[in-house]
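Q: Protein A?
A:
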Amino acid sequence: MRLTPMKKGLLVVAGSLAMTGCVKMDGTVSGGGTMHSLGGKGKAVFTVNAQRCDDKPVKGHVNFRDETAIDWQEKGGVAFKADVIGAGLCGPDIGDPADDPLLVCQQACETGMYQVDFEYDSTNPLNPGPGTGFACMTDLGEGINGYKKMHGLVNVIAINAGPYLGYVNGGVVSGNIQTKECPGAKNDDTEATDENA
């Protein structure tokens, strides 16, 4: 497999799986759009919807397609649908992945980013099979609050098992990435304030 300097750098970032990271906090993420292909001439398509709220089971989905990805373009590229198995906003507190890896963000995901961990099934019949991966995303705001007209960033999407092992990408998303508090979180804060009054 040929590694470009960018891909080497991203693999180093993605390879720090066992190192200490931020504890995941409750929150939701949704959105997606197109981003650059991994070295190809086309575009990668990314969508995500995930929720981690109030100790309820994490839920959500990730869809991804990069038909011109280097090392996979001759077999139709990278394409999968995935179920989210871990999610959360990376907070300021530090946790130990040895306790529960799904409660701690990868070192590649910094405070303020939202991380999803997923189990995928390839949708490319030329490269079938299941696998695992993770993605870190940043909500860059909307409208006049957006950063230089950018509304979402996939800091990194990395595949660590399965037919797309070694795929690592990242970049600005043409659409939007939105992170929010869990539904009812503001109401909970209001109720707590009322009770203390």
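Q: Protein B?
A:
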Amino acid sequence: MTKPNDTIRVLIPLTVRKKNGRPKILPPADYRPSEDQAQDPHILRAIGRAWGWRRRMDAGEFATIQELAEAVGLAERHVSRQLRLAYLSPELLKRLTCGREASVVSLYDLCFLAGETWQEQAERVFRA
């Protein structure tokens, strides 16, 4: 049992680095994340944003991607690229958002898969 005057020190070997201008805590080199943390928050956020944009365009709020880009304050090219995420296969979206599978492609590469068949999309993203 500890006394009220005792001090307990806990040392956790973490490194803080800046990534995209924000501080990011890096775990030790031998750390292996659990399967529960396989989802990439950047991909989840981009998919959510793309679906929001798609709904707004389908509702007639914006007639063109250029109008949408101006409204959200982003470059037209960026909006155009990320809007493609809303047109990925339903199975792929389910595996990316609800499943615990890690994608083997980057967010940038994922944006260009919408033009492929649904079977090819899953094969490229998860190497199934």
